[in-house]
């Protein structure tokens, strides 16, 4: 299906950028011209809109999710049809998917992983109470907003438990990396199946990888049926026995041994979060927000420094007010970004842009595999000239067939009107382009706006950006040609000036 960017649906919703696609629909960032706000539009593919079963599934998604009102579920705003093409209007969530987050950071902090599992299970619990099973729980279907909160989306194959006839018996729906044994076998699917899939998501958050791999989807699905989950404590020793036990129960293949409902699963996760926080003596990231929502029974496990941070800060202030002030100022700088780079002279009339400490990501869109040394991305913003991010090695310096390039981007959150980018590279002779985006980051190159072309002729190269002084959040270095005689390009730093 060709992109419909620029289309105005029903004279109201303007499609601004493609941000995702699947077998049934394409998702766009759009603008509601009536209420003047950004929304997300899920537009059904024209070629399958004539299929009555697929059309009914699409409409059923809108009806199902419209029933759900929860802070950790992406809200359905509207639904309709334009030129016989159905669409669903959803809340637009600025941020990234949980899968993207795992790819960027690898293993998440234990308390953060448990906190996300709690938020997701609370969302699923609301759906299950209304008889709706998601059936495709995976980190790709969890959005993490700018505040770090998780929101479940894509109920595209959701099904009410009292509805029959829309899914053929024995047909397996869902993603096999996270599929429950009963779903893989084509057996009846219930809320327990969603809990199994969430258990696999939790395993991936803790270890940085899915538990089973195989030559094809069927092979992976059969491992979920037949093989025991790898020992999470072997892969990550700091995981507590309490958390390992919860994970084992959530992913039990026997339904009688698995959690029977969301409430029991959530209660155990809440206890584990309190235990993990007490062990470490602190909480970071989204765990901090989730801790405030724990019931009294779980909160009693928490240390005073977590349950009464204000009281603790006042006590510290009475002892060493100046030290506290310095800590607060340092914390603010850490949250805001990497700050003013050392030994950098800005171009006349410009100043450096502060980049978020976690604000870098690799970019390898289809036909690429979605990853380009994502474990090295922080090197371009760590202010260490000796650390580098590099492309993967390509034979004879030529990208794989059909691949036009690879890239890496920086996040100038919340936005910046950058006019110059400085690229520092230990190798010269490679070529590329600079792209920008206001939101996303976009998953395909079509979602980015091109603002410069360059050839790296020096180890510190400044590139003028044709942004018309508009503000953008993401700045992408897109590498189109590798250095002569080399198999890869390298970048040690990316700096922005506005």
TrEMBL record:
Binding locations of ATP: 42
Keyword Hydrolase: no
Region named Disordered: 355-374
UniProtKB keywords: ATP-binding, Kinase, Membrane, Nucleotide-binding, Serine/threonine-protein kinase, Transferase, Transmembrane, Transmembrane helix
Membrane-traversing stretches: 312-331
GO biological process terms on file: negative regulation of fatty acid biosynthetic process
Domain of life per record: Bacteria
GO molecular function terms attached to this record: ATP binding; protein serine/threonine kinase activity
Descriptive protein name: non-specific serine/threonine protein kinase
Species this protein is from: Baekduia soli
């Amino acid at each position: 299906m060709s992109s419909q960017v620029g289309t105005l649906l029903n004279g109201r919703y303007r499609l601004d950028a493609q941000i995702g696609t699947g077998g049934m629909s394409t998702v766009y960032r759009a603008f509601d011209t009536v209420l003047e706000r950004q929304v997300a539009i899920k537009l059904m593919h024209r070629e399958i809109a004539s299929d009555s079963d697929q059309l009914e599934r699409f409409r059923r998604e809108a009806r199902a999710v419209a029933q759900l009102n929860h802070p950790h579920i992406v809200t359905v705003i509207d639904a309709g049809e334009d030129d016989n093409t159905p669409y669903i209007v959803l809340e637009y969530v600025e941020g990234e998917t949980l899968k993207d987050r795992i790819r960027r950071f690898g293993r998440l902090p234990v308390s953060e992983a448990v906190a996300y599992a709690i938020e997701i299970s609370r969302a699923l619990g609301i759906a299950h109470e209304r008889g709706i099973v998601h059936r495709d729980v995976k980190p790709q279907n969890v959005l993490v907003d700018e505040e770090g909160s998780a929101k479940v989306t894509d109920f595209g194959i959701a099904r009410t438990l009292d509805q029959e006839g829309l899914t053929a018996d024995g047909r397996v729906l869902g993603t096999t990396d996270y599929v429950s044994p009963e779903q893989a076998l084509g057996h009846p699917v219930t809320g327990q199946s969603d809990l199994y899939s969430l258990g696999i998501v939790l395993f991936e958050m803790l270890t940085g990888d899915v538990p089973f791999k195989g030559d094809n989807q069927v092979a992976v699905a059969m491992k979920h049926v037949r093989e025991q989950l790898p020992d999470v404590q072997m892969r990550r020793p700091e995981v507590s026995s309490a958390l390992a036990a919860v994970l084992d129960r959530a992913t039990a293949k026997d339904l009688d041994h698995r959690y029977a409902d969301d409430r029991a699963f959530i209660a155990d996760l809440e206890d584990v979060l309190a235990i993990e926080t007490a062990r470490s003596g602190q909480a970071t990231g989204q765990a901090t927000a989730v801790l405030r929502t724990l019931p009294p029974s779980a909160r009693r496990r928490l240390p005073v420094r977590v349950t009464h941070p204000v009281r603790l800060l006042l006590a510290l202030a009475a002892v060493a007010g100046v030290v506290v002030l310095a800590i607060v100022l340092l914390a603010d700088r850490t949250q805001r970004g990497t700050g003013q780079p050392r030994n950098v002279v800005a171009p006349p009339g410009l100043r450096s842009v502060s980049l978020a400490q976690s604000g870098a990501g690799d970019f390898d869109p289809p036909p690429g595999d979605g990853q380009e040394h994502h474990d090295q991305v922080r090197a371009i913003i760590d202010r260490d000239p000796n650390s580098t991010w590099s492309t993967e090695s390509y034979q004879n310096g030529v990208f794989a067939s059909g691949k036009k390039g690879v890239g890496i981007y920086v996040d100038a959150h919340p936005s910046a009107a950058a006019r110059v980018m400085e690229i520092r590279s230990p190798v010269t002779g490679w070529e590329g382009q600079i792209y920008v985006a206001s939101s996303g980051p976009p998953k395909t190159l079509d979602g980015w706006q091109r603002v410069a072309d360059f050839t790296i002729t020096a180890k510190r190269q400044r590139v003028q950006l044709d942004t018309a002084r508009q503000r953008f959040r993401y700045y992408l270095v897109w590498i189109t040609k590798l250095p002569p005689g080399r198999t890869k390009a390298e970048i040690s730093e990316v700096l922005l000036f506005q």
